[in-house]
Amino acid sequence: MAKLQAGYLFPEIARRRNAHIQKNPDAKVISLGIGDTTEPIPVPITSAMEEKARSLSTSEGYSGYGAEQGEKPLRAAIAKRIYSDLNIKETEIFVSDGAKCDISRLQLLFGPDVSVAVQDPSYPAYVDTSVMVGQTGGFLTNVQQYDKIGYMKCTPDNDFFPDLKSVPRKDIIYFCSPNNPTGAAASRSQLEQLVAFAKENGSIIVYDSAYAIYMSDDSPRSIYEIPGARQVAIETGSFSKYAGFTGVRLGWTVVPDELLYSDGFPVINDFNRVMCTCFNGASNIAQAGGLACLSTEGWKAMNEVVDFYKENTRILVDTFKSLGFNTFGGTNAPYVWVQFPGRNSWDVFAEILEKAHIVTTPGSGFGPAGEGFIRASAFGNRKNILEASKRLKDLFAK
Amino acid sequence: MAKLQAGYLFPEIARRRNAHIQKNPDAKVISLGIGDTTEPIPVPITSAMEEKARSLSTSEGYSGYGAEQGEKPLRAAIAKRIYSDLNIKETEIFVSDGAKCDISRLQLLFGPDVSVAVQDPSYPAYVDTSVMVGQTGGFLTNVQQYDKIGYMKCTPDNDFFPDLKSVPRKDIIYFCSPNNPTGAAASRSQLEQLVAFAKENGSIIVYDSAYAIYMSDDSPRSIYEIPGARQVAIETGSFSKYAGFTGVRLGWTVVPDELLYSDGFPVINDFNRVMCTCFNGASNIAQAGGLACLSTEGWKAMNEVVDFYKENTRILVDTFKSLGFNTFGGTNAPYVWVQFPGRNSWDVFAEILEKAHIVTTPGSGFGPAGEGFIRASAFGNRKNILEASKRLKDLFAK
């Protein structure tokens, strides 16, 4: 624990945001910071949760402990709706209280003796949980990296896909696509390379697909679109950014039967054991909501909210581009990755906060290769996004 | 992972139950097995959850990520209602998706290099998570114990409280009172001994109070009733058995400011970091339900359900006593601990299942000192409890 650097990124941003508000009580602060949903959950989905809550007060509707792996109809619906044609069995799907929580349970499964690689930059939970379970050495301040973690640089120079020839072998590869924070989605041929690389090295890919629904081009939505992925990849997914469930809490993890340790033992058996020992199932009310998300009506309503956020994303991309910034992401993810060459990310963060009262996320918080970038999240109501666009233009227009 | 013995206890029981049902499709199986609530949640509590679900579909009511530590009003209400007069601050309370999940997060906090002690018998999650994070050696089949875990024998001979003079020093002491499975609640003087023992040894007590609301005598409801406990104890609690939230999922953990590692660093800071990194807050709908549980109306309604289960417990205690069995627990917990001298717990389990179609829990599943006992859970509707009582009398009457 002592190895962890000060402050998990988002609590640290919240701290700075609060300090700014205290200093500027009249400022109308807009958040493009943490990727937090802002739009109401569609009624067909909340109605299902209301109905479930109500039924728990009746003898007929009450139920206690559910299966640790999730309710059968929900597992089946995820298999059918999210993985149609990909041959994922409902028994390979483990429903959870969210992808972040599943990542820590996966780390518990892997234990301290494995080595891990992450995209650089990447969502901080991979590295922080890895440090926490003891897979790493200390923090090397000269390179801003933890010893023993493989940092796979993803920058505009390599189309945000690591040069696998230069990546040393690691047991576990965390790979998020569409990526948080860069917004880059790996193409089919890139993912084929990744799967081949994992197979060659006997590595397990943990593929984070939390933003797959935001994709606009024809990049794969799931690692299981790649032949052979069932032998090397675990995939996590989440209702957080799909249906505004960031507070409701619901996600899932897929562990295919064919994924085996080097001794031939199925990983799914161990993951099942972790779920049964360290978890007691996602909230039954949240699961009722998840099932409604996957119904025809819920799915349509949910995608309309996603489209709304996608329009927000286009507004932000246009804003930064019109100001002459090198701007990445945005097409396949609700994140815009903006380059400020030669500048320190936290300085840019501070400037935008102080002068425009807008919270962003400093790129370096996601890894050393994020230095010189900031991430703007497109979650927000339209009025705020338009106001943010205006303030950014006022601040940065030449 | 490989060290873990076959099957977490309750999934194993479920497996045997299902096999029995397949063999006896017409049998009306009654469960006194897993401690799973059966009675509806009172309307004042489900209404609050419905209301919260509904509000998430509105612009005014929607909220995304909540604080990882839980919503402020709920933390304040737990401090006030559960820890009134015990000076627990709301900032010392971390709201979670349940005590079982918190135990695995505590194990993640402690890491592989600590030594642990558990009551024998005890709730299996302490030992299983300890094995999982690598704190133990292998399973020693001759003594049915994991190497390096301290098993503190709790039997009728020592009033279910360990002889601390013979307990070797361990870093962490898991202590559940009222105990699952024995139903025994430690007295004030016993807990004073425990706190003094931890202080002497520089150990941390993890005190599981999940059944405190079932207490009928004047034993302490919280470890913090004992002077000095703030320096040595973490306490976990849960709405599962209080309000029938086994499926809704809500619990909490208290980490007092004064609890320090040997180097003087506050444990609360590290636990906060674990919660922020490995968890994303309990479901906001469940939290709305928890807040309603602690209101005057909710608290009253919730206690009426608890009283119902307490009456169930009395029926089961009377049944086993009338049959001449040495019967323990039941006064302060919804569990009845029944002795079958000289017999194997799984054999008794099988006999009761096969001949009376009743699922119990074999005592040896909770640790070697549980051998020769079975645990009967008093959660169930009254008709089933009375029918179980009748069948047990038919089976065991001389």
TrEMBL record, chains A, B:
- An example Gene Ontology molecular-function term: pyridoxal phosphate binding
| Coiled-coil positions | none
UniProt superkingdom: Eukaryota
Which GO terms of type biological process are on file? Answer: systemic acquired resistance, salicylic acid mediated signaling pathway
- What SUPFAM superfamilies does the database record attribute to this sequence? PLP-dependent transferases
Q: What CDD domains does its record include?
A: AAT_like
Q: Which residues form the Aminotransferase class I/classII large domain?
A: 28-391
Q: Which Pfam families match?
A: Aminotran_1_2
Q: Which UniProt keywords apply?
A: Aminotransferase, Pyridoxal phosphate, Transferase
What does the record give as cofactor?
pyridoxal 5'-phosphate
User: Which NCBIfam families does the entry mention?
Assistant: DAPAT_plant (TIGR03542)
Q: Give the UniProt family note.
A: Belongs to the class-I pyridoxal-phosphate-dependent aminotransferase family. LL-diaminopimelate aminotransferase subfamily.
Under which name does UniProt file this protein? Aminotransferase class I/classII large domain-containing protein
Q: Which organism is it from?
A: Ceratopteris richardii
